[in-house]
Amino acid sequence: MTQATLDAQSAESSDAEFKPDDLRDQVSALSRAKGEPDWLLAFRLASLEQALGMEWWTGQEESWRRTPQDRLPRRARVGHVAGGSNGTSISVPPHVFAPDAHAGMVHQIDGRVAASDLADEARAQGVIIKPLSVAAREHAGLIQEWLGAVGPPQDRYDAFGRALWTQGVFVYAPRGAVVDESLFYLITQDVARGDHWHYTLVVAERESQISLIDAGDANDRRAEIGETPLIHASVELIAEDGAKLQFASVQRWHRQTAAISTTRGRVGRDATIQVTTAAFGADLDKQRIDIDMSQNGGYADIRGLFVGDGNQHIEHVTRQHHKGVGATSDLLIRGVLTDESQAVQYGLIRIEPEGQKTNAHQTMRNLLLDDGAGADPIPMLEIEADDVKCSHAAAVGPVDPDQLFYLQARGIPPKVAERMVVRGFLAEIADGVPDEHMRDVIDELVEIQLEPAKGAS
Amino acid sequence: MTSPLFEIDALEVAVEDKQIVNRLSLTLQPGEVHAIMGPNGSGKSTLANSLMGHPRYTINGGDIRLEGESVVEMAPDERARLGLFLAFQYPTDIPGVSMINFLRRAMSARRGEEIPVREFRQVLNEVLGRLQIDEQFVRRYVNDGFSGGEKKRAEILQLGLLEPKVAVMDETDSGLDIDALRIVSEGINTFHSDDNAILLITHYQRILRYVQPDHVHVLIDGRIVESGDASLAEVLERDGYEPFMERTKEEVLTS
């Protein structure tokens, strides 16, 4: 497989603006360079037209009001794609996210596939994990059926995400397939290369069970970058009737990065989707998670974990959208904020009139370890059915002094005690990650992030 | 002459500017068990928590000495490392922190060095067996979802592992059924030796049937109004706190 180098320079003429014709040309060139079938180019171009027909956020919108105006670029550039398949120009550090044991993996650097494999047992069941462009050639029917099946793009980032992606993965479990170990999708951010658009598509057919770890890390955490890189991740999760889909995203992008993600899940009848996200890097991280509970009896378990430091802004915008009867959704967000870092959680539970017997809950808890840190949790309920159970709870505060006293009363020094409480607080969220090794990695990252001399890490 | 093991010397404790403990003095010698008995609101928990250094309580006067060394200026963790222990009336739950991790850290802190895993396991299993606690128990999060009895047993487990010099037991008997009370009491008795001392703080006399006190003190309005031997507990059981409270009122009026 040969991939041509796509010159991204021509698209970098302006931050806020772009020339639509240039973008159309670049998307076409990108698709050709990746050897994509015509229908996929058509999908990209249609998404691009949708994006061009939309506006950027202004900050007036309810879900954007608390986002710092100048820290998330309103920008659409085709990212860089590394040339050739027999070597990469960047060196990848020993990967903190390297899986311990897994059923399959794809590792991409700059759109180039660095590694890809799948265990025989999973392969025998018809399970697929492949770079999205490759899957489009080899499993055209499946990709055509499922790409974008979660619904039309909801905003301009979402739409551009479908048009401009340079790397992506397709994960698929056929009907009844059950894979115990997690699959891994690793992305290494080449910090010298600017913007990235990722696309993750996971489909669990009826009665199947599958889990994917989606991890992103920077190749050089100490590099000084001239311009804020923008990273957008489009994630589409589909669990058909009776399926169980677990998805965990762990990101540690370079500290100057503006990261935004659009995660959309569709929960089938009596199906389960579990989403856990853990955010450690980036200057700004805005995660949008939207779960569609249109079918009866589905379950969604949505968890978010983060540790903010420095001047980081970490934001979660979520929607639990119920239309089916007797479905349940739980949202649980917990974060720890040090220094001057700030967090926002804007969580909506929306229940349509037909969504009777819904159980929907939200809990947002923020621990502030320093005076300059702050958090703004905003739970919202829009309920049009009359026979539902809903609850929401939001908290912002310091570590419970009684917990600290209890540990201190056993001889544990205050700093260590605080660390224990904080790690425990987050460990409960990390319990949702379907891979033990990855839970340890998350705990390790929490520890690193909480180190006082963490600036250089 | 060597110092007593533990001395509370004219201690005054306030909570939010309200004086709760009034010039309370008490001396514990090695091998002794003292019981402080008092009605609700007499200052029992304030005394217990302030001995351990809870930040909510302000020491306005007096001293607390462990083997002659004043601990009032010390942080709770320093006191604990020196050998002071508080069994909590309401142990705090700490979700996400496993008992086993917590116990190992606490033991290492008390020893002043990391305890080897093998040795920790050995000691832990021995104490668990003695207290009839299932091994799976230590996989759970600290006090999280524990029943009242489990919480108290977990306190005694810590007492057994940390081997303090002085153990202050704050209403350890409350909320226990008769079987749990017996197990917990046995745990205290097993821990007790000629080298350490126990201060039982309790409302009821029933734990004293299992843990024999050498001295019993009656606490009313933050002061000790009467001290005696084990028979004083029986007087309290029979007559209640009322006569002591009446007497305190009179003393206050005439003073």
Task: Characterise the protein shown here.
The complex is a heterodimer of chains A (457) and B (255). Chain A is globular and about 65 Å long. The model of chain A is unreliable at 1-16 and 84-89 (pLDDT under 50). Chain A contains 9 helices and 19 strands. In chain A, helix 1 (20-33) packs antiparallel against helix 2 and helix 8 packs antiparallel against helix 9 (436-450). Chain A has 457 residues and is of the alpha/beta class. Chain B has a domain at 6-89 and 164-254: P-loop containing nucleotide triphosphate hydrolases (Rossmann fold, 3-Layer(aba) Sandwich). In chain B, strand 1 (6-15) and strand 2 (18-28) form a beta hairpin. The model of chain B has no long low-confidence stretch (mean pLDDT 93). Classes of the chains: A alpha/beta (457), B alpha/beta (255). Chain A binds chain B through residues 400-403, 405-414, 416-417, 420-421, 423-428, and chain B through 52-56, 75-77, 80-81, 85-86, 88, 91-92, 94-97, 101-102, 105-106, 109-110, 141-142, 158, 162.
Tally the structural domains of chain A.
1
Helix/strand-derived class of chain A? alpha/beta
The biggest beta sheet of chain A reads: 10 strands, mixed
| CATH superfamily annotation of the domain at 6-89 and 164-254 in chain B | P-loop containing nucleotide triphosphate hydrolases
Top CATH class of the domain at 6-89 and 164-254 in chain B: Alpha Beta
Integer-rounded radius of gyration of chain A: 21 Å
Distance between the termini of chain A: 36 Å
Biggest sheet strand order of chain B reads: 6-9-10-3-11-12
Q: Could you give the order of strands across the largest sheet of chain A?
A: 2-1-5-7-9-11-13-15-17-19
- Mean pLDDT score of chain B, rounded? 93
Quaternary class: heterodimer
Structural shape of chain A? globular
Specify the number of helices of chain A: 9
Radius of gyration of chain B: 18 Å
- Helical fraction of chain B equals 25-40%
